[in-house]
Structure formats: C-alpha cells, structure tokens
C-alpha cells in the first residue's frame, strides 16, 4: 500500500468504527476514538477496568496520525504512519479480526415481484510455500452452494456490488443444496488436487540443502558410538530449518447471498 | 515430491460454529477492509528483501542490503557477520531478523549480547526495526517473550539455562561471538546446546587468526562444515590447503571492509603531536625508569610494574601516584626499595606542569569543535576534567563501568552542553559519537585493535566530516617507541583503510601487546629496543 492508499484506508477504518475524523488534511488525520477503538488500540486496560467499575464517564482518547510526514504541517504533533509501522500493523490486525467472517445479502431493491438470493461460499486467503524461504500466493474462491460451480477471483468480482447484513425487503433466500461444511471440504480437496499437480521444485531444492547439511552433520559425529544430545538437537534444527511444507491460510470468508451470478456485471 | 499440506482448520471451525450461533459477523465494508489488510502482508516471491519496504526511515547502505540478502538466500540463514567496526553489523542482523519475521518464518528469538549492550540492542530493534524486543534481566519470562535480549551470563545460569534449552527458538543471535572460540568454556557449551534453526554470530575480530578458533566458531554454527576436528587440523595445517579453507569460510561468513563498502568514507587525518617534558617531568620519568634494572634478581615483579609506571608517567603524575602508593605499601619492609619509591614520591610533588595537558588545552582552545580524549587511566581522566574546568572548558567523563542510562546521559551532555568528552579505555565499546570528528589519543594502548575501536567511535557510518586524530607521544619515552617504531612502521595510522585488518590477521592485538611488553622489559639499551621493535614490525607488516 502506498501513502495515499494508507490514508484512505485509515479514514475509512475509523469512520466505519464510529470514530469521527475531527480534522484532516492530505497528510494527517485527527480522530476521536470510539470506546471500542480506544480499547482496541490504546492499550490501557486498567483505565477501562477502572471506569467500568466505578461507572465513570468514559473519555476515549483522540489520536493524530500523520500519513505523510514530508508534507504535513510541522505544527501537527502525532504518530507517523507508514507501511510497516507498528500502529498500522495494529490497525490491520484489528481490521482483520472485525471482518474475518461474513454473512451478507446482496442489496437489491425489487420493483414488484420478490427476488430469490442464492448462496455462495467465499474464501479469501493465501497458500504459503515454506521451507527456509517462503512465498505466498493469494486466492479468492467462490463456490455456489446450489450448483457446485467454482469461480476464481471471487473478491474481485464482488467488490463493486453492494451487500448488507440484513435480508433486503421482498427478497427470499434459497437454501443451500450443498451444506457449508461440505462446501468447505470441496474447496479443500480442490486445493490439494491443484497442489498435487504442481511441480514443487522449490521443495526439492530445499530437501537437497537439507540433505547436504545433514551429511556434514553425520560426518562431524561419525565414529562416536553414542551420539551426544547436541547431535539430535542439530538434526532437529535442520528439519525445522529446511523441511518443506504448504500452509493454506484463510484471511476471511463467508456466505454471500447473491441475486445475480457473481460473474454477471 | 509433494510437501505436507495444512489447511486452516481453525478458521473453518470458528466459521462453522458461528453459522449455528450467529455472532462476530462483519459487514461488507469490514469484510473488504479485512481482506485489504490481510493481502498487504503477503509476500509473493521467495527472493528479495521485504524488510526495507517496512522501514522507510531506516537508511540501509548497499553493503548492508547485500549482506542481508546473501545471508538469507545463499547461506540459508546461518552466518557469521564479521564486518569491520563501524559498518553496522547490528543493522544487518536487524534486517535479516526483520525479513524472517515479516515472512512469518521466525517468531521466537533469543539475542545474547554483552551485558553492557543489552539495552542498546533492545532500543535499536524497537526504534529502528519495530521489533518488540524485550530485555530479560532479573525476572525473565522466557516462555512469554517472543524476542528476548539478554547476556550470555544470564542465559547460561540456572534456572534460566534449562528453560531456554527447552524452548524451540527460531532465531538465535550472539553478539561479540569471538568470545566463543574456546570450546571448553561454559559459554561455548551453552550456545552449542541450543537448537539453532536460523543463527547469526556477530564479531568484529577477524577470525582467521588461529585455525582451531575458526574451527570451533564455525562448528557452533554449522557442525561438519569444516569436517571433524582431527581431520580438520591435519588437512589445513598445510599451506596449500589455505585457499580451500578460505573458500569454505566464505560460505558461512560475511566480512565487509570499509575499503570495499563502496561508500565515500570521510578521510582520516592523523597527526603525531610530539610532547616535550619539562625538566621536572623528565626527572620523574628517569627515576621511574631506573627501577627497571636496579632491583633485578631481588624484586622481579618490580621490573614489570616499571613498565606501567613509565606509561603512567607519560600520562599524568596523578596516575603515577596511585600505582606508587600501592607499591610503597607492598615494599614497606624492604628499606632500599622503599627509599627509592619515597624519592620518586618527592619528585611527583615537584611536577607542577603537565605538558600533555597544556597541549590539549592549546588544541581545544583553537576551535569550537567537539573533541574526544582517550586515556588509559582514571586518575588522568579525573585530572583532565579538573584541569579543563580550570580553564573554563566543560568536559564530561565516560567509562565502561557506567550504567547504560548514565552513558546515554553523558553522551547527551556531551552532544548538547560540553565541548569535551574524556573516555577511558573500557568506555569504547558500543557507543556511537559520530557527531564529533576530532579525537586525541592522550596515551596509546599497546593493542592495535583497541586503537581501531577508539577510532571506530567517530569514524563510522553517519560521520560527515573528515576525522582528525591526534596522537600524543612524549619524546624520549616508551611512547615514542610504540608510536614511532611500531605503529608508524606497520602503517597503522595511514589512510589505508582496512590495513589494520591485514595486520591483525597476521598477529592478534593481544599478542602484539605481549610482544611489546616483553621487548621493553628484557632490553637493556635503547639500541636493543629499536632492533627488536624493528623486527616485530617487520614480522607484522610482512
């Protein structure tokens, strides 16, 4: 994310979380935190514990974030935010928690006849190829729980549509033919099949490095009848260092009831 | 081959659960924001460095960037970092650690550094790298803390050692690792006993000095890289195997030198300042020197102490006084020696002018620039502070024994309020004073490495001015010998950066010191000293 994107993201994040922007420029944001955001970000559990115990009037903090330190007016005192800064990391963490699971309905307003909404299971996440190195591959999968059709780039397809948490008026949902649990299983199998067909040269190379180091280790302790603890320790360390594995992690996902097929504009 | 595949069952479990008990559902906006946040931390290539993107305010020099990349991509995260002083080994280590943490390959980290540097490491990791490193001192919580910084001395003691050994650390850093060269020490054994997935050993001393030391250090990092001990010694004792050995070492060691760091380093301007004693100072020095041979065969220890007294006499009468007082107590019952010592004591009282201090004064008064004065003696340090104070010059003291907070305070005082900082030897390690570019070697250590460390305090990354170094040497004394016959001959102060490295690879600093002491102690004439020092410098400069 670049500076402008971060600025826009932060503004949206606080507005979304009931924390009004009191003052702003292109390069800074002055925010009145809500109680929930103060608790999530300001790290003062004792204060909140105390206020709640005595039933006092809560006074959540205000926060000033400088998103472009070069452009910001020098009179503005605040935290400098950039990609990689701890505050942004913390906000990302909070955001990730808040939007990890969803059950949403496409916001349509039918003129007359009532409309059916069909369930899609959407998973966003990453496949991580790990050894002593690591790389991530993003995925966003949509699975129709009616037909079993699977689409890639689901998030991209859905992003310009509107969804809401309550079922819109004059709409009704169609019950899944495939239950969510079975749907998840289908997606899991799909990934495994796909991964089994890939050529994992990176993993073979990691194993080569592993074996090479292990041979050196064997030679080092060669001739010792009873190997010392350090031998087993080192051997285990090499495994931890090199052993290739693949993690499929989910960033977020949920059930989306769509009126139109996601691929239809 | 197909590696093990793990699916995010935790997410699945919670998702299915919330289908039955609706809660924690995010709205559409929240969902999109969570996705954007989650996507931002993905790294889509095995190669390259992500860390600099996260650290926009950190100035990373090309050699540091390359080092981090080499260690991660070519050395698989196990390496000895052996840059020359002042090139930023800590920055390199921080970059490497950060990279692994960003990529999620490292979570549990143990960093072991000399006790005096624990706080500084913590601060640098937190401030420069946003790595939440926490000092572990009196009441450590090894299990709870992900990034722990401690001293080896704390870590190796029970009950800590057992806890640390039971934890699966992903990353271990040892600073000042040259102290781990002896495999029999407890420190060595302790580091050996730890599971090292990724590991960095940091050292400023070239490791090629002694074969067995190289062997032990590398075997700690990567056992077997140099074979086993007996075959190693047999193989590399021969000259022609050296090249092969060097190649092997380079596979696990990075050593950047100033000369090839590709940067425009500020120049070093070195000036020898000859000091001429007053008649009183001369008399004191001569009296002290006469002790060397006079009691030979009767009090052998005295000859060695004479070397110390001579060096002190070149520094200040205050320094001589402290040693002399102790000697008088020691030889209380030996009338002859006691009388000689008493005579010297009387000569001390005659000395009213310190020629070196006068010289300091004239150097300082000439400009407003800040100046660091290095002396070997605390008594001299105190005297100089008082002396400069008498002339309206503010000076702050600095010693290795100061607590970290006091060191920081003194550094700040020096930066903002005082013109002069007077440091004793031990004050050298781990403090960076690149805002000052002038320094006086008020007296010279006999170990060239220590001189380099002194200079390294100001001649380092971040120094913008040319560095001026003034070496004081009293004419007609041991100082003139050391400076003129040894240091100058071997080119220690020449502007050839990296020269010292070559020297120390031939002969470690502590050995130089030993040789010099022996020569001075066992020579009966100026001529003899000259010849022997000539030989020594020839050996070193070979």
UniProtKB/TrEMBL annotation, chain A:
It comes from the Bacteria. InterPro entries: YqhG. This is Uncharacterized protein. It comes from Evansella caseinilytica.
UniProtKB/TrEMBL annotation, chain B:
InterPro entries: DEXDc_RapA, Helicase_ATP-bd, Helicase_C-like, P-loop_NTPase, SNF2-like_sf, SNF2/RAD54-like_C, SNF2_N. Pfam families: Helicase_C (PF00271), SNF2-rel_dom (PF00176). Residues 356-520 form the Helicase C-terminal domain. Residues 70-224 form the Helicase ATP-binding domain. SMART domains: DEXDc, HELICc. GO terms for molecular function: ATP binding; helicase activity; hydrolase activity. Keywords: ATP-binding, Helicase, Hydrolase, Nucleotide-binding. This is Helicase conserved C-terminal domain-containing protein. It comes from Evansella caseinilytica.
